[in-house]
Amino acid sequence: MQYEVKNKRLAEWVREVAELVQPDDVYWCDGSKEEYDRLMQEAVEMGAATPLPKRPNSFLFRSDPSDVARVEARTYISYPDKEQAGPTNNWIHPDELKATMRELYRGCMKGRTLYVIPFSMGPLDSPMARIGIEITDSRYVVCNMHIMTRVGTKVVEKLGEDGTFVPCLHSVGAPLEEGQQDDPWPCAPMEKKYISHFPEEDLIWSFGSGYGGNALLGKKCFALRIASAMAKRQGWMAEHMLILRLTSPEGRQYHIAAAFPSACGKTNLAMIQPTIEGWKAETIGDDIAWMQIGPDGRLYAINPESGFFGVGPGTSYDSNPMAMESLKENTIMTNTALTDDGDIWWEGMDGPKPDHAIDWKGRHWTPDKTEPAAHPNARFTAPASQCPIISPDWEKPEGVPIDILIFGGRRASLVPLVFQSYDWDHGVFLGSTASSETTAANIGSVGNLRRDPFAMTPFCGYNMADYFQHWFDMGDRLGDKAPHIFYVNWFRKSPEGKFIWPGFGDNSRALKWMCERVDGKAGARETAIGYMPSEEDLDLTGLDMPAEDLAELLEVDEEGWRAEVPTIDSFYADFGERLPERLREQLRKLKERLG
Ligand code: OXD
Ligand code: MN
User: What CATH number is attached to the domain comprising 258?
Assistant: First the structure.
C-alpha cells in the first residue's frame, strides 16, 4: 500500500480478491497526473497506445475487434428471485453466477498488476456523491477512470474507517503465463464475458471485456444499474440523462434533464449551440443524472461523472463544435482511425476524408474501402472541464433545480418533433413507452425498433415495473413542484430516408417552446398524444425548411398512433400484474382520445 487505508472492509476486500485472482502486484491508485502519465507511458511502450502529436497528451487505443461495445446479452442483474430483475434484464441466481465467475476469476490476473481505484461518483463534497472502489487489471481502465470519475487518495480519506463503498471488480480475463507476450488489448471470448450486478449487496463483478461501459464500472454498472436500485430504496433517482442549463435573453435560467438511448445525441444536446437569438446553453452532464428532492421541494440534479465518453463518428464542428473543442488535448481515443500526420479521424468529421489512414483494426485504409475507417462506436474520453461551455455550476454540491424533463429516441416515422405531457402521470406513460432504433453502442443488430423506457432498458438495476412505480412515487412527492415533461424526436425521415428536421442547434427551437410552456407563455393545442405546438407557437426565425416537412413534423397521425396502441399493450403485458395500474389508466385514456 502506498498510502494508509483505514477502512477495514476495503483492505479486507482487496486482500480477498488478490488471493483469488493472484496478480503479480497490487497497486493502489492515487489519482495523480504522474500516475496517469506513467501508466500511459507503459501502454505506449507495450504497443497498446499510440501518442497523438496533434493533440497534446492524447492517445489512441485500438480494441480487439471482438470487444467494441457494451454487451447487453452478457449483462446480468442478479437477485435471488428472477422477478426482482424483471422481464427486461438477463438473470442468473447469485449463487450460480458467483460460482461460475469465481472460477473465471481464479488466477485471472496472473502476470498482471491489480490496480485499486478509489473513485467518487459526484463531487466529493456533494451530499449526493457515492464512493466506489474498482479493482482492475487494465491500465486503459485506470486512465479512463481518471478522466471519467474523481479518483484519488481523498476518496480513501473520505471513506475513513467505516464509510461504505460499492466494490467494483473488473478483469479483462486474460492471465499471462510465465514469459508470455501481452496482447495490446487483452480480453476474453464472448461466452466468458459477464457484466454482473448484485444490487442487494451493491456489488459489481465484470469479467472478460475491456471496453467502455463493460469495464469503466463507475459509469453504467454503478451510476445507473446499482445506483438505480439504491435510488429506489433511498427515494432518489439515477437516470440515463444529460443535464443542460439554458438562459433566455432576459437572463432566466432553465435546467433540463433529457433521456435518450445510447448514441442518440445526448452529448450533442448537452453541448447545444442555440440557433435562436439571445439564448445561451451551458453543459452540466452528457450521460447520467442523479436527482433528489431538495429542501425547497424541487428536483435537483448532479452529474456524477467528470468526463465525457462520447461517440466519435458523426461528431464534427458542424454537429457539435463544443465536443470538438473538448477533445483537443488530454483525451483518450478508442477505435478511431489514425491519419498519416498523427491525428485521428472518424466518419462524419469536418472536411474531406483523408486520402489514407490506418483504420481501427490497424490496417491501411483509403476512401474507396467499403468498411469505415473508425468503428461506428469509436469513442473519445475527455475531461468535462475542457468543454468551453461547461457550466460554472457543474460541480455544485447540491446540483441544479430541474424545470424540464425530456424523453425521446430515434423514430424515422410517426413520433412528432415535440409534444408535452398533460401531467406527471402522462409524462411517466410517455417515458415508459419510449422507443428507439438500436445503435452501435451495444453489440447486436443496429436499426431495429425497440421499446426503451426512459432510455433505461440496458441500465435499470431492478424490475422495470417497480421502476415505473418509483417514477409515480417521486411525482407524488414532488407535487406541483415537479418538472414539466416533454417528448421529442429529432430523427424523422422522408420516404427517401433523409432526415427532415435539421436538428443540432435548431433543436433550441423546441427547447425554447418548452421553456415558454413552463412559464405559461407559449401556445399549444390539445391532441390525442399531448400538447403540441402549432407552427406559430415555435420560434422559426431564420429556419429554412420546406413547409410540408414542418407540417409533417407537427402533425399527429392518429391512424398510426392507433396502430401503435396494441404494441404498447403487448409491451406492458410482459410486466404482468406488477405493472402500475396508473400506466394502464394512461393507456386507456390514450385509446379514448384516439377514438
Ligand atoms: C454510453 C452508452 O456509453 O450509453 O453512454 O452506451
Ligand atoms: Mn449512455
Answer: 3.90.228.20
